[in-house]
Specification:
Layout: E1 11-17, E2 20-25, H1 26-48, H2 54-74
Antiparallel strand pairs: 1-2
């Protein structure tokens, strides 16, 4: 059974190789998961309506890049 409270550690995982490290936080992983789920649902709806679902994925890529840059500029 999975616990229903947030984890104590803010990192989902950390990888350290020599002097290089990669840290993935929970909020980042959940944000990406939410964006991908929303894009999959939107692409499915666009395909049903007869539009090109690739436009959804292009907008997701652009939105994630611009959102990341904008968030970094504001902090």
């Amino acid at each position: 059974m999975f616990p229903l409270y947030p984890p104590d550690d803010p990192y989902l995982f950390q990888i350290t190789l020599l002097s290089w490290s990669l840290s993935v936080r929970w909020y980042g992983a959940l944000s990406i998961d939410g964006a991908l789920l929303a894009a999959m649902l939107a692409a499915h709806r666009e395909a049903r309506r007869g539009f090109d679902p690739d436009h959804v994925w292009n907008l997701l890529t652009l939105g994630m890049i611009l959102g990341t840059v904008g968030a970094r500029l504001c902090t």
